[in-house]
C-alpha cells in the first residue's frame, strides 16, 4: 500500500469521524458528551421523539421555516444570477467590464460586515411595513436576496461555452431575447443551474450569523438558530437532541443532491474552458 492510499484513508477517516460521532450521539439514549462514543453501546430513538414532543422546541416549525426560506431564496438567486449572466455573456454595453469586476470585488467582503447597517435598515422598514421587519421570514428572505447575483461568474462561464449561433438562429426566426433565453438557452444550462442551485441551497440552509441576529422569536427561527439555542442551553445534556436534529437537517441536502446528481458531474466542469 503506497503513501497515497494512506493519505486517502486518513482523509476519509477525518471526514467521517464527526459524522459517526453525531450519529452515535443521536442514537445514544443518555445523550451526553461523557457517555457518547464513536460506536454507540445502545440504540434508542428517544432524542428524535424529543424533537417533536417538546413544546418549547418547535422543530417542525423551524424545519418548515428553513425549507421555505432556502427554496424561495435559492430560486430567486438562481433566476437573477442566470439573467445577469446572460446579459454579461451575450451583450456588449458600456460598463460591462466594470460591472463584472464590481461583482467580483463585492463578493470578497462577507455580508456580516454590513450587519449593523442592515439591522438599522430593517428596523426602520419594520416600523413602516411590519411584515418586512425584524423577526419576519419575509424580511429575512429579502435580506438574503441581497446576494442574488452571487453566482453570476460561475453561470457566465457556462454561457460563454454555449455557441452564439443558437441565439442568432432563433433571432432570425423572430424570437426576442426573452424567448431566446427561456426557450433556447435555458434548457442547455440545466447542469450549471443544478450545481449553483445546490450550492445556494446549502449556503442558505446553514446560514447562522444573520439569522441569529434577525430571527429571535421562537416561531420564526431557522434550524441553524433553533438547534444552536438547544445546544447552548445545555451543552452536555442536550447533545443527543442536537445531534438528532442535525441528522434530520441533512436530509433535504442529501435528497436534493441525489435528485441533481446526474447534472452535477457535467456542471462542475462545463464552462470552465471555453470552446
Number of strands: 0
Helix content: 55-70%
Mean residue pLDDT: 84
How far apart lie the N and C ends?
40 Å
Assembly annotation: single chain
Low-pLDDT runs of 5+ residues are 267-275
Instruction: Give the H and E element order.
Output: HHHHHHHHHHHHH
Note the overall shape. globular
Proportion of β residues? under 5%
The major β-sheet equals: none
Give the structural class.
mainly alpha
Number of helices: 13
Rg, rounded, reads 23 Å
Structural description of this entry:
With 275 residues, this protein is mostly helical. It is built from 13 helices and no strands. Residues 267-275 have low confidence and may be disordered.
Blueprint of the fold:
Layout: H1 3-27, H2 46-53, H3 59-90, H4 96-107, H5 115-128, H6 137-144, H7 152-161, H8 165-172, H9 177-185, H10 190-205, H11 209-214, H12 223-233, H13 239-269
Can you describe this structure in just a few lines?
With 275 residues, the chain is an all-alpha fold. It is 69% helix and 0% strand.
Descriptive terms for the model:
275 residues, mainly alpha, globular
